[in-house]
């Protein structure tokens, strides 16, 4: 297969974002200790922090689950709570990130939709292997449906998109299912021998080597057997899932996962939409204030969350 020409696919604004990211979080960071990786990642996130929209407030609290406590951060755009609730799971390869890494993203989602946003600080690998993160995500959903009467929209980027989808699969048949899910460049456990995994194996910002590192950190060794709580695309049944919007980046090995997931849900008779953002790279949420393509995509994501929270299907 011919080499992908990223100089043609990626515009100057996005290259500036990539270079800025690499100046704070160099590609070789994956070879460092986990603690050092987290330190560098957290510093990078602080550098990109864009503040809160006017009128958005945040409160950090802890929810109790069997044998553990799960920190969450609640964002509100006024009192009382908004007409829907967004349960948000952050990215970071299951080893990085937390309430602060996606703080401004969640605040902006709140400000632009008027919905209450709940960000979940799930346990990280390798200290906490699978299914720890999934268990925390599911516990956070159980807490949310007991705490709020409003519709719950699941959302997440990258690893967080994986968790949102896994919760959607696990809550089929639940008395209160999610109103919808919005998956942002998610990793869903697709076929690594084809599609974007091959075409964009060496993409800027995320490579297949990075993905394998994160997978081993999460699973703790050889690839585990098919398990929808680990890899939603491993499920054999895609019926009964909530309305789904998957938005991926063209220059990202994970992009095909969004397309495959859309196809499986649609084949099973469900509502699913997939859109690939041309010329964008993994992690572009942090570029939403500096790259016009990323800004347009963030507006698309906000619109999807807003629509699903109202029970609207626009696709």
Average residue pLDDT: 96
Helix content: 25-40%
Number of separate strands:
8
What is the overall number of helices? 10
Strand order of the largest sheet: 1-2-4-3-5-6-7-8
Shape: globular
Beta strand %: 15-25%
Walk me through what this model shows:
- The chain is globular.
- Helix 5 (132-147) crosses helix 6.
- With 315 residues, it is an alpha/beta fold.
- An 8-stranded mixed β-sheet has the order 1-2-4-3-5-6-7-8, with helices on both faces.
- It has 10 helices and 8 strands.
- The model has no long low-confidence stretch (mean pLDDT 96).
- Strand 7 (244-251), helix 9 and strand 8 form a beta-alpha-beta unit.
Itemize the secondary structure elements and their pairings.
Elements: H1 6-9, H2 12-24, H3 34-48, E1 57-65, E2 68-76, E3 85-89, H4 103-113, E4 116-120, H5 132-147, E5 152-157, H6 159-170, E6 180-184, H7 196-199, H8 208-219, E7 244-251, H9 255-267, E8 272-281, H10 292-309
Helix pairs in contact: 5-6
In short:
This protein has 315 residues and is α/β, with parallel strands linked by helices. 37% of the residues lie in helices and 18% in strands.
Keywords:
315 residues; alpha/beta; eight-stranded mixed β-sheet; globular; Rossmann fold
């Amino acid at each position: 297969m011919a080499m992908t020409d990223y100089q043609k696919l990626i515009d100057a604004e996005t290259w500036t974002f990539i270079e800025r990211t690499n100046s704070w979080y160099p590609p070789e960071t994956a070879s460092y200790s986990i603690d050092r990786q987290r330190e560098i990642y957290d510093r990078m996130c602080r550098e990109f922090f864009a503040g809160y929209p006017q009128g958005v407030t945040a409160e950090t609290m802890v929810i109790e689950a069997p044998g553990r406590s799960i920190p969450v951060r609640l964002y509100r755009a006024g009192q009382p709570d908004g007409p829907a609730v967004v349960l948000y799971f952050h990215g970071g390869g299951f080893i990085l990130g937390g309430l602060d890494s996606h703080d401004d993203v969640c605040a902006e989602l709140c400000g632009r939709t008027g919905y209450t946003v709940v960000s979940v600080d799930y346990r990280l690998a390798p200290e906490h292997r699978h299914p720890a993160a999934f268990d925390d995500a599911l516990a956070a959903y159980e807490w949310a449906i007991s705490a709020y009467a409003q519709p719950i929209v699941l959302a997440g980027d990258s690893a967080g998109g994986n968790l949102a989808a896994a919760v959607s699969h696990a809550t089929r048949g639940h008395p209160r299912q999610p109103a919808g899910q919005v998956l942002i460049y998610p990793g869903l456990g697709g076929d690594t021998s084809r599609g974007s995994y091959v075409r964009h194996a060496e993409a800027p910002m995320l490579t297949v080597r990075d993905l394998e590192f994160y997978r081993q950190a999460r699973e703790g060794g050889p690839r585990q057997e098919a398990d929808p709580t680990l890899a939603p695309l491993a499920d054999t049944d895609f019926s009964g899932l909530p309305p789904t919007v998957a938005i991926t980046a063209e220059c990202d090995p994970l992009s095909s996962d969004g397309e495959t997931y859309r196809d499986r849900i649609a084949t099973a008779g469900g509502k699913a939409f997939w859109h690939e953002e041309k010329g964008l790279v993994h992690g572009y949420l942090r570029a939403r204030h500096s790259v016009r393509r990323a800004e347009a995509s963030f507006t698309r994501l906000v619109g999807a969350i807003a629509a699903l929270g109202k029970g609207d299907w626009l696709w």
